[in-house]
Amino acid sequence: MIWVCDLEEDCSDGSDETTCSELSSSTTESIKTCKEFQFLCSDGRCVPLQWVCDLDEDCSDGSDEASCPELSSSTTESSMTCSEDNFRCKNGLCIPRIQNCDGEDDCGDSSDE
Questions:
Q1: What is the CATH number of the domain that holds 4?
Q2: C-alpha distances in Å from residue 60, one per residue of 23, 32, 111
């Protein structure tokens, strides 16, 4: 995937950001959305859903790993748990219970709907 005009230099020479018009942060926040197969980081960047809860912080603010169950090398998917006030998605992501069955795919795999 190529990240162009996302306000983050992904190419070593910064060429992915050089032809972009400068947007104010309020404008960027109001229009920022991700594709259905992407996760919207708290910092506004979109990353592939498979990068969420993979034990690697892909968002500069770590939001792709923030709501994940803690894993150890001996942890299996069936033994992962979320806190009591969260819902555990089939992909292992923990989301607030209030987002379960709210008409939006908060898990990224539709298991909360």
A1: 4.10.400.10
A2: 19, 16, 26
Residue count of the chain:
113
Residue 87 has a CB neighbour count (10 Å cut-off) of 18
Mark whether 2 and 52 lie in a shared domain. Answer: yes
| Tens of pLDDT, residues 63-113 | 888 888 765 444 444 456 788 888 888 888 888 888 889 898 888 888 888
- Judge whether 105 and 99 are in contact, CB under 8 Å: no
Helix H or strand E encompassing 24: none
How do residues 93-104 score in pLDDT, each as one tens digit?
888 888 889 898
| Domain range enclosing 101 | 67-113
Q: Is 105 exposed, middle or buried (0-12, 13-18, 19+ CB in 10 A)?
A: middle
